[in-house]
Structure formats: structure tokens, C-alpha cells
């Protein structure tokens, strides 16, 4: 029985209702983190309806878009209701998959939910009456349970708060918004049966140099801040968190069932309430000794706990993904970050001082920046000793205009037209400064396409050769380690040189470093010697592995 949503009394329904949640491919390669929102909704369904439902989560988020085997597996389970969480970046893929599933499961009820349908309510279902029977807006738990009640009773009129549905005459009925789910009503996401072929979730602990088996979950919803580019602020509901005792019970039960060594807290902003962070950190250290954890934070929220960082690190905090976003005060104001370059530096130094890794959330390119702003972004990484960050994704990251965000509306007003609600706008035409636009085009286009894979492979080959030669040729191994560091700096150096180059110059002319790249690459590979041939297969897999662990690109 649900804590917030009463179950309809239908003892005559017989066999349990088969309810599938399908995470469609994201379209950007392999995936390790399971679909946490779908897990939460299905866990709530299980709590609410118990034996009246049979649930299963098909996590194909990391599969190829063309995977017929995945579609066949879903259809073979014969679900009567199919829920589909949707992000704005995967709309076209979802449309394709749901069309094929509809053909295989013509009697099933299809329900969309998640960020994109919530943020594009006016158009999403109207464009897809042939694909979906209903959409759930905002928190999906209670509306989805109410839809299941009606399906089990043979009713297709989903007159439920927080739902829009297709009526019998083909029209769309939009019900009033639902209430946000109370924190004490949230259900244990680890209780959901999942089908997937993801690689095991791990965390690389740089303190010990080993990988830790990991779990991921969301312990709070929303964010109290109002960054102008962030889709989270456009979603309904205020920030709230799962009660500490409930959260710890979930984690302890999962640890007893399948032991893990690290917790990824995937909240939008875990550090909102300092007292909660201190309490959870102490409780994890006490009840799950040896388990480490990581979380995300904005700069200001992290600095409220600056004095606590030494203790948090001793208790197990290993990494903070931090929303730095920009390195000039004008850019930060434009993004409504409520931080400054000085506080950004302070937060970075505080984490570094305590040996806590930094996950970098950064918008390297935004259409309103000047060339001086872009150069400040590049200098920030150098001045804050962030140049050896393993992932390169932040260097190429441009502003994404998500539906419902203030910045998307700003650019629509400037253009005097609306963007297609089902597409993320291409940022290139929006640049105000032609010099910044030229740098953006050269760096994210020909440089990334022609050189990045070569840079990563050469760096990894040098690293592998250095390890192999460490005991037999220490001098050569040391030189290779230095070359690997030099190679790792190449993307940032290229960006720096592009900022100083004459606009419109060919890439190799604008960047002297690249003009001699072929010869340099041959020299490094010669230095690697026989180790190179053995190192390259692993190196070729490196970009995908980076995406798996760090969520790059």
C-alpha cells in the first residue's frame, strides 16, 4: 500500500499487471550509471501495489540505437504498461524505439515521463499521440501508480493530477499539476529488478590507486539555486531530501545484499544542508566502514563546509563534482551562478588542499562571452592546477539551451522566434563575438575530429610503455612519463594558441604545435619502442572508458 497514493480496490483483476520501465539509448556510447529516476518510480510502484504488479526495468541506455535484440527482449516480456523516461538529448532515439515497440506491443499502454516531457508539456504529447497514451509531469511516482490502477480496472481515462493523456477522440486532456512527492514517501531504488549489460559501476580512488566497486543513487531532488542555464530549476517542486535514517537503511540493506566500496550521490546539489552532510558522512563511516563516497555541489554550498573538509575526507569523501562553470565574473553573472572567480578559486584550493578529487562542471564556450572571457577560462585551469584532469570533456563543453530555462528564453527573444521544443539548439550561430566563434569552430570541429583520438592514444601508449620499462630502463621510462604529461596538456595548449591566432587561419597555421605533430608522434612512438604495439589496443578503448567513468562528452 502506498504511503501517499491509495491503491484502488480491484481484487478481481487476477494476474499481476506487467509493468516495464525502459531506458532507451542515450546515444553517446557505453553507460554504467543506471537510470536512477526510473528505479525510484518503479520502487514506489512496488511499495504501492505489491502483488498486484510485476515490474521490471530494462536499462538499455548504453546500447546502440539500432539494437534489435534489446527491443526483442522487451517485447518478449510482454508488458501491459511501458514507462519511458526521456531526456532532451535523446528525443529522436526514444521516438524511434517507441514506434518499434508499439508495433510489437500494440495493446500496451505507453507512458512518457522525466525532464523532457515535463518541460515541453504543451507540444510533446500533441506531436506523439501515435506513440504515447499519456505523459507524467514532475514527480512520477503517484501519477504513475494512479495510471496503473486505471489500466488494471480497464479504464483509459487517466484523470489524475500531474498527467496529460490522449482521450478516446484523439484530443489531449491536461490535468492539473500534481503535488511534489514528500521525502518520506520515496522508495528504496535498489529494490527494483533490472536487465542491463552495463559494465560494473566503479570509482577510481586516486588516493589508493585502485578501483572501488560502487553504487549510485539520488538522495534529494531539485536545487534551491536558480542558475539560468539549468533545467533543474524549470522542473516543478522544491528541494527536499530523503530522511537520513531511510537513506542509510537503503544503503545498508544493499551493502548486505551486494557489498560495495563507494557511493555516488547523484543529487543535483548534495551539499545544500551542512548539518545533513556532516551527519551522513559520520553515519556512513560508522555503519559502512571502509566505504567512500562522492557527491556534487555548487561553489557556495561547498564553501559553507570548507572547515569540515579535513574530517569529511578522513571519513571517506573522495570526490566532489563542482559547478564552477566560468572564470570571469561577467560570465558567472550571466549564468546567475551567485559565485565569483575568487570563490571558485577558493573552493578548488580547499578540495585540493584536502586531497579530494574535483569533477569539473564547466561551460568553456557560451555565445555571450568575449575573447577575454574565453582566455580567462583557459587561464583558470592553468592557474588552479587543473591541467592534469583526466577527462577532457570540459574543454569542449558549450552552453546547452535546455527547454524551460531562462537562457533559452533569452536567446529566443533575441532571435524573435522559438526553438523547436524537441531539439537542443546548435550554439554556433548564436555567438556574438566572431573571434570566439572562430575558436569554437576550430577547436570543437577539426581539432577534435582530427587530433583528439591521436592525442589520447599517444598519451596512453607513452604511459603504458613507461610502466613496462620501469624495471628495465628507468631513464627511458621517466622520459616517457614526462612525454605523457606533455601530451596530456596538448588540448589546452591548442585552445590557448587558437585564442591568440588570427581569425580564419588554417588550423595547423594557427597552432604551431600541430604543424609538427606527425613528426612528434613518430618520435614518441619510437621512444615507446616494442611496448607501443602492445599498448595500442588498450589505448584505443580509452575514450570509451573515460566516458564510462567520468560521463565525458
Characterize this entry briefly.
Helices cover 44% and strands 14% of the residues. The chain is globular and about 75 Å long. The chain folds into three domains: 11-191, 3-Layer(aba) Sandwich (Rossmann fold); 200-362, TIM Barrel (Alpha-Beta Barrel), CATH 3.20.20.70; 433-553, no CATH class.
Write the layout of secondary structure elements.
Layout: E1 17-23, H1 36-49, E2 53-59, H2 68-77, E3 81-85, H3 91-104, E4 109-113, H4 115-119, H5 121-124, E5 134-136, H6 141-152, E6 163-166, E7 172-174, E8 194-195, E9 202-205, E10 210-217, E11 220-221, E12 240-241, H7 244-257, E13 262-265, H8 274-287, E14 292-298, H9 299-303, H10 309-315, E15 317-325, H11 329-334, H12 341-353, E16 357-362, H13 371-383, H14 393-396, H15 406-415, H16 434-469, H17 474-488, H18 490-500, H19 507-510, H20 512-515, H21 517-528, H22 531-540, H23 542-550
Helix pairs in contact: 1-6, 2-3, 13-18, 16-17, 16-18, 16-21, 16-22
Unreliable stretches (pLDDT < 50, length at least 5) are: 1-12, 531-553
- Total number of β-strand segments? 16
The top level CATH class name of the largest domain: Alpha Beta
- Measured by DSSP, the beta-strand proportion falls in 5-15%
Biggest sheet, open or closed, and with what strands and sense?
Answer: 8 strands, mixed
How much is the radius of gyration in Å? 25 Å
CATH second-level architecture of the largest domain: 3-Layer(aba) Sandwich
First-last Cα distance: 42 Å
Q: Find the CATH topology of the largest domain.
A: Rossmann fold
* Shape verdict: globular
Q: Any overview of this molecule?
A:
With 553 residues, the protein is α/β, with parallel strands linked by helices. It has three domains: 11-191, 3-Layer(aba) Sandwich (Rossmann fold); 200-362, TIM Barrel (Alpha-Beta Barrel); 433-553, no CATH class. Helices cover 44% and strands 14% of the residues. The chain has 23 helices and 16 strands. The strands form three sheets. Strands 7-6-5-4-3-1-2-8 form an eight-stranded mixed sheet, with helices on both faces. The protein has a six-stranded mixed sheet with strand order 9-10-13-14-15-16. Strands 11-12 form a two-stranded antiparallel ribbon. The longest helix is centred in the C-terminal third of the chain and has 36 residues, at 434-469. The chain is globular.
Amino acid at each position: 500500500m502506498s504511503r501517499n497514493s491509495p491503491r484502488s480496490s480491484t481484487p478481481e483483476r487476477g494476474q499481476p499487471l506487467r509493468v516495464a520501465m525502459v531506458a532507451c539509448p542515450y546515444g553517446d556510447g557505453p553507460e554504467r550509471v543506471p537510470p536512477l529516476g526510473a528505479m525510484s518510480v518503479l520502487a514506489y510502484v512496488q511499495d504501492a501495489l505489491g502483488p498486484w504488479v510485476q515490474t521490471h526495468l530494462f536499462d538499455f541506455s548504453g546500447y546502440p540505437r539500432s539494437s534489435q535484440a534489446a527491443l526483442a527482449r522487451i517485447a518478449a516480456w510482454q508488458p501491459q504498461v511501458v514507462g519511458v523516461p526521456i531526456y532532451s538529448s535523446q528525443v529522436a532515439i526514444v521516438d524511434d524505439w517507441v514506434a518499434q515497440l508499439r508495433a510489437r506491443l500494440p495493446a500496451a499502454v505507453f507512458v512518457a515521463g522525466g525532464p523532457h516531457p515535463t518541460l515541453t508539456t504543451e507540444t510533446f504529447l500533441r506531436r506523439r499521440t501515435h506513440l504515447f497514451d499519456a505523459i507524467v509531469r514532475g514527480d512520477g511516482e503517484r501519477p504513475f501508480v494512479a495510471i496503473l490502477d486505471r489500466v488494471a480496472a480497464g479504464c483509459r481515462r487517466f484523470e489524475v493530477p500531474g498527467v496529460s493523456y490522449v482521450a478516446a477522440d484523439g484530443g489531449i486532456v491536461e490535468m492539473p499539476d500534481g503535488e511534489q512527492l514528500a521525502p518520506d514517501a520515496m522508495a528504496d531504488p535498489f529494490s527494483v529488478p533490472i536487465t542491463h549489460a552495463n559494465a560494473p559501476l566503479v570509482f577510481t580512488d586516486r588516493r589508493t590507486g585502485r578501483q572501488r566497486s560502487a553504487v549510485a543513487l539520488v538522495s534529494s531532488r531539485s536545487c534551491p539555486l536558480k542558475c539560468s542555464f539549468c533545467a533543474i530549476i524549470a522542473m516543478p517542486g522544491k528541494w527536499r531530501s530523503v530522511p537520513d535514517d531511510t537513506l542509510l537503511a537503503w544503503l545498508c540493506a544493499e551493502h548486505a545484499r551486494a557489498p560495495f566500496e563507494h557511493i555516488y550521490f547523484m543529487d543535483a546539489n548534495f551539499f545544500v544542508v551542512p548539518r545533513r552532510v556532516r551527519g551522513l558522512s559520520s553515519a556512513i563511516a560508522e555503519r559502512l566502514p571502509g566505504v567512500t563516497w562522492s557527491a556534487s555541489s555548487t561553489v557556495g554550498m561547498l564553501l559553507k563546509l570548507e572547515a569540515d573538509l579535513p574530517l569529511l575526507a578522513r571519513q571517506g569523501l573522495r570526490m566532489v563534482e563542482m559547478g564552477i562553470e566560468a572564470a570571469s565574473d561577467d560570465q558567472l553573472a550571466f549564468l546567475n551562478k551567485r559565485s565569483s572567480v575568487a570563490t571558485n578559486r577558493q573552493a578548488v584550493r580547499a578540495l585540493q588542499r584536502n586531497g579530494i578529487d574535483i569533477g569539473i562542471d564547466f561551460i568553456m564556450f557560451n555565445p555571450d562571452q568575449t575573447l577575454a572571457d574565453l582566455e580567462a577560462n583557459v587561464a583558470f585551469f592553468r592557474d588552479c592546477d587543473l591541467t592534469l584532469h583526466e577527462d577532457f570533456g570540459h574543454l569542449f563543453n558549450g552552453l546547452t539551451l535546455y527547454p524551460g530555462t531562462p537562457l533559452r528564453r533569452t536567446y529566443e527573444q533575441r532571435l524573435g522566434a522559438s526553438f523547436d521544443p524537441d531539439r537542443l539548439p546548435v550554439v554556433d550561430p548564436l555567438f556574438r563575438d566572431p573571434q570566439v566563434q572562430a575558436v569554437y569552430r576550430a577547436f570543437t570541429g577539426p581539432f577534435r575530429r582530427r587530433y583528439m583520438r591521436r592525442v589520447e592514444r599517444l598519451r596512453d601508449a607513452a604511459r603504458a610503455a613507461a610502466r613496462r620499462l620501469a624495471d628495465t630502463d628507468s631513464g627511458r621510462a621517466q622520459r616517457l612519463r614526462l612525454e605523457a604529461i606533455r601530451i596530456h596538456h596538448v588540448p589546452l595548449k591548442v585552445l590557448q594558441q587558437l585564442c591568440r591566432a588570427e581569425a580564419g587561419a588554417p588550423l595547423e597555421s594557427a597552432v604551431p604545435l600541430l604543424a609538427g605533430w606527425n613528426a612528434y608522434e613518430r618520435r614518441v612512438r619510437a621512444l615507446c619502442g616494442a611496448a607501443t604495439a602492445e599498448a595500442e589496443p588498450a589505448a584505443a578503448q580509452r575514450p570509451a572508458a573515460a566516458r564510462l567513468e567520468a560521463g565525458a562528452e
